[in-house]
Design a protein that fits this description.
This protein has 348 residues and is of the alpha/beta class. The protein has one domain (20-347): 3-Layer(aba) Sandwich (Rossmann fold). Helix content is 43%, strand content 7%. Strand 1, helix 2 (73-80) and strand 2 (103-105) form a beta-alpha-beta unit. Helix 4 (126-144) crosses helix 5 (146-155) and helix 8 packs parallel to helix 10. The longest helix has 24 residues, at 236-259. The radius of gyration is 19 Å and the shape is globular. The two termini are 19 Å apart. It binds 2-acetamido-2-deoxy-beta-D-glucopyranose. 2-acetamido-2-deoxy-beta-D-glucopyranose is lined by residues 285, 315, 317-318. It holds the Pfam family Lipase_GDSL. Keywords: Signal. This is GDSL esterase/lipase APG-like. InterPro entries: GDSL, GDSL_lipolytic_enzyme, SGNH_hydro_sf, SGNH_plant_lipase-like.
Length: 348
């Protein structure tokens, strides 16, 4: 993190006056593998990252269920906001008692805005993540007391990372969808779910909400391998689709901001930073941006393919992607820096 940013955060922490100098009391997270910290370990699915080499660059080399060699962008963001522990995966045994005071993570790899996306992978649909959040609220009230619980709920940061799986693991490969709906129609459908989800969170007390845009999905190694046979670079049609979706989600967020009094909402643009990393890896100190570190780097992700037998590159810090879909911890560091810049208005 740059010195200037660190300075802003220190000043902001002092102004907010949290005893433990966290900028927000808690973080609640919803969505897919970009933000899941291990809920899928407790779900019957092959979309798990609870085995080596996932987590190999944590100091204890522990695979936690994160789809990364180390920290997710949202882990680094939590550290940047002054947290010394991460909010637990809601389905894990750690999600109890005082641990709930810093929030909870409801995300599930393979999930999306469209509940059918989650159904295809047998993971936790977004609608169920919301139900778990309601359950969390009553648990929090019994740990913290109802007054403190409401203030935590109101001041917490809510993060949503979803949408990429709806395209890569559903729309593009599901003839029932792509034969009957245009990309534009499907995007609008997803955005209507996003808007309703934000309204539900708001109705449950949330006031600070950040959601990530879509990534340049056409630049993910998996997309290049499976859909890019005739193209040398990124799959440009996928990137165009992602940019159209991103326009819509930004418009929806502005509308929600106007409709819901007291709501602060930000769309974190992850398209541009990931696109820049892929286009100019050397500028950011990376060596490889076209394939992931795990296995051949072209198709491997999840339990089935990125595993102890598939092997890894010698230094994941030189790779933009850890597996064929997910950024490495080193790339997540770059993303987290850009998240904190665009998210500063959420924590003021
Ligand atoms: C891995 O690569 C990073 C980035 O180039 C570098 O800073 C680090 O020293 C390398 N680590 C090893 C063990 O070579």
């Amino acid at each position: 993190m740059g010195a200037f940013l660190a300075y802003i955060l220190v000043v902001a922490a002092a102004l907010c006056g949290y005893a433990n100098s966290q900028l927000v009391p808690a973080i609640m997270t919803f969505g897919d593998s970009t933000v899941d910290v291990g809920n899928n370990d407790y779900v019957q699915t092959v979309f798990k990252a609870n085995h080596p080499p996932y987590g190999q660059d944590f100091s204890n080399r522990e695979p936690t269920g994160r789809f990364c060699n180390g920290k997710l962008a949202t882990d680094i963001t939590a550290e940047n906001l002054g947290f010394t522990t991460y909010a637990p995966a809601y389905l894990s045994p750690q999600a109890s008692g005082k641990n709930l005071l810093v929030g909870a993570n409801f995300a599930s790899a393979g999930s999306g805005y469209d509940d059918n996306t989650a159904a295809l992978s047998h993971v936790i649909p977004l609608s169920q993540q919301l139900q778990y959040f309601k359950e969390y609220q009553s648990k929090l009230a019994s740990v913290a007391g109802s007054e403190k619980a409401s203030s935590i709920i109101k001041d917490a940061l809510y993060l949503i990372g979803a949408g990429n799986s709806d395209f890569l693991q559903n729309y593009y490969i599901n003839p029932f969808l792509n034969k009957h709906y245009t990309v534009d129609q499907y995007s609008s459908y997803l955005i209507s779910i996003f808007s309703n989800f934000v309204k539900s969170l708001y109705g449950l007390g949330a006031r600070r909400i950040g959601a990530t845009s879509l990534a340049p999905t056409g630049c993910l190694p998996l997309a290049r391998t499976i859909f890019g046979q005739h193209e040398r670079g990124c799959v440009s049609s996928f990137n165009t689709d992602a940019q159209q979706f991103n326009k819509k989600i930004n418009a929806a967020a502005s509308q929600l901001q106007n409709q819901l009094p007291g709501l602060k909402i930000v769309i974190f643009d992850i398209f541009k930073p990931i696109y820049d990393l892929v286009a100019n890896p050397k500028k950011y100190g990376f060596v490889e941006a076209t394939k992931g570190c795990c296995g051949t780097g072209t198709v491997e992700t999840t339990f089935v393919l990125c595993n102890q037998k598939s092997g890894t590159c010698s230094n994941a810090s030189e790779y933009v992607f850890w597996d064929s879909v997910h950024p490495s911890q080193a790339a997540n560091q770059v993303l987290a820096d850009s998240l904190i810049i665009s998210g500063i208005s959420l924590i003021g």
